[in-house]
Design goal:
The complex is a heterodimer of chains A (241) and B (279).
Chain A lengths: L7 E2 L2 E2 L11 E5 L7 E7 L2 E12 L12 E8 L14 H17 L8 E11 L4 H15 L9 E8 L2 E4 L3 H6 L2 E8 L4 E5 L2 E2 L3 H36 L1
Parallel strand pairs in A: 6-7
Antiparallel strand pairs in A: 1-2, 3-4, 4-5, 5-7, 8-9, 8-10, 10-11, 10-12
Chain B lengths: L2 H15 L15 E5 L7 E7 L2 E12 L10 E7 L15 H16 L9 E3 L3 E13 L4 H14 L2 E2 L5 H10 L2 H8 L4 E2 L7 E8 L2 E4 L3 H6 L2 E7 L5 E7 L6 H26 L2
Helix pairs in contact in B: 2-3, 4-5
Classes of the chains: A alpha+beta (241), B alpha+beta (279).
């Protein structure tokens, strides 16, 4: 890995952002016709669609839980979403991401209302640029609201990391490749509970505290954008009634 | 057949007796077609196509690979389709099943047999290295007629595609040490260039239920259909590929009518495609 690449130029990052600035985010709720709920999200160069099916009977039956619903998140990258074509189908990375997203979502969904059911959360990465798991979880949360799934809160995710010994918010493409730490975080914004936390790289305790605060701050900004997107779709409908 | 589809079927048949379809179209009329070219920045070429509520995304990726021994001076093309569970409650995750394989192969045949890609111009060094083109089709929202939406999205993606010299320059430069011919190729092609293409084939799909043949079937019409016919035609009105599906049958007259209507609709769709890709 090249270490001579400069990630900071005159106090600004390669894409011109400040250290505590997010990439541009666009969220749209309800973009698909067949799904119960859906969301299209652009986060920097990431383009993601999430779609919800269910609650419906969990199949195969041995996966059913008689007391509550299960959440099947499926994170999938399109073959053309990365520089070198990705072979279609799940791999170890996407299997792991699917698992941690499912678990994060299960904490906020009122699962007890749907015994033996499955809620399928499909997350398709159409164009990838770093930070797809945070973007995917954020899109999935909006799609769940669009599907009318009862939840305690609208979960939201954002990452912080370290490049050239500086803590920054929301790593971009080169920063993800050449930076020294990346820490995706998902929270329940109403309670501040942590739903997903991963980290790779190298952080001191002080750096962790700083990165955590920054990621948290990012989560609340994205949370407002989620709510705005949902209101944009449902406000006209509510007014009519 | 379960209860709901059988009620829908009766309704479709009743409407058809008065010459009508659920959405008010005539029998050989398409839904509104929208084409959005070049939307995926990581892909060499891409396009989203909407036919009514059906949405399909196609992406083109390219790589350097080995030619087939029997066609050593031609590029290689492969098409894959995924019926991802995002698009319909009935699609399941996992390796492509027969529906997805048939879809990919029909799209592949339409593009291959019409020779729209000038494969002879995709050779880097004969017998050694050629360009490989991967067309990947992602179904986003399924409301019938995936065949036409997938072919049109794939074609548009090809029209927006560039050969990625710059992205693969490190690979090419490494290869030229052992393959001196590649040095000349790099000198002749210093930058990304447009994928060489000829005129596109346009595929049009019809289905038959209860003795009626309709074009561009919606999801409900497809559900109730007994037979399906896809016809790909070129700008001269010649047939370049066909595929009949499902367990019903067509009469000879019906097939002839379908071909005629496919040529007529193909013309309109080709004009729309030309307008979008600026040809």
């Amino acid at each position: 890995m090249k270490s001579d690449i400069k990630l900071f130029i005159d106090g600004k990052r390669l894409d011109g952002r400040k250290s505590d600035e997010l990439r541009k985010i666009k969220i749209e709720a309800g973009v698909l016709h067949r799904a119960e709920g859906s969301c299209y999200l652009e986060w920097g160069g990431n383009k993601i669609i999430a779609a919800i099916y269910g609650p419906r009977e969990a199949i195969p039956r041995h996966t059913q839980n008689p007391l509550r619903a299960i959440v099947n998140a499926r994170y999938n990258m399109a073959a053309f979403s990365v520089d070198d074509r990705k072979r279609p189908g799940p791999d170890r990375r996407s299997t792991e991401i699917s698992k941690v997203i499912s678990e994060a979502l299960e904490h906020v969904i009122l699962l007890e209302k749907f015994p033996r059911a499955a809620i399928d959360v499909n997350i398709e990465i159409l164009d990838a640029e770093a930070g797809t798991r945070c973007a995917g979880l954020t899109a999935a949360a909006v799609a769940l609201v669009d599907a009318g799934i009862p939840m305690k809160d609208i979960p939201v995710a954002c990452a912080a990391g370290k490049i050239e010994n500086q803590i920054v918010l929301d790593l971009g493409k080169e920063e993800d490749n050449f930076g020294s730490a990346d820490m995706p975080l998902a929270i329940s914004p109403r309670t501040g509970e942590i739903l997903l936390l991963q980290m790779d790289g190298h952080l001191t305790q002080e750096e962790f505290d700083k990165a955590f605060d920054l990621a948290l701050k990012g989560c609340y900004i994205v949370s407002d954008l989620q709510k705005k997107a949902i209101l944009e779709k449902y406000k006209p409908i509510l007014k009519e009634e | 057949m379960t209860i709901l589809p059988s009620i829908k079927r009766e309704y479709l048949i009743k409407l058809a007796k008065d010459g009508k379809r659920v959405d008010g179209r005539t029998f050989d009329e398409y839904r509104k077609i929208e084409i959005e070219p070049g939307i995926i920045s990581k892909a060499e070429g891409s396009a989203k196509v909407k036919i009514g509520k059906t949405q399909v995304l196609a992406g083109v990726k390219m790589d350097i690979g080995d030619p087939y021994p029997d066609i050593p001076e031609e590029g290689v093309m492969t098409t894959a389709a995924e019926l991802i569970p995002l698009a319909s409650p009935d699609f399941e995750a996992g390796p492509p099943r027969e529906d997805a394989v048939e879809l990919a192969r029909v799209v592949d045949r339409g593009i291959r047999e019409s020779e729209v890609i000038q494969v002879d111009k995709l050779c880097i060094e004969p017998y050694e290295k050629v360009w490989m083109i991967f067309i990947d089709i992602h179904i986003l929202d399924y409301d019938g007629n995936l065949f036409d939406a997938a072919s049109l999205a794939s074609l548009t993606a090809l029209y927006t595609a560039h050969i990625p010299i710059e992205r693969l320059r490190p690979t090419l430069e490494k290869l030229q040490e052992s393959h001196p011919v590649i040095k000349k190729y790099l000198e002749e092609h210093p930058k990304d260039y447009k994928l060489p293409l000829k005129d596109p084939p346009i595929s049009c799909t019809s289905v038959k239920y209860n003795g009626i043949v309709v074009m561009d079937p919606s999801f409900d019409e497809e559900e109730t259909a007994e037979a399906r016919l896809t016809v790909a035609t070129d700008k001269n009105g010649h047939i370049r590929a066909m595929q009949k599906g499902l367990n019903g049958a067509f009469t000879q007259e019906e097939v002839k009518k379908v071909i005629k209507a496919s040529i007529d609709n193909g013309k309109k769709i080709r004009e729309l495609l030309y307008k979008i890709v600026g040809k």
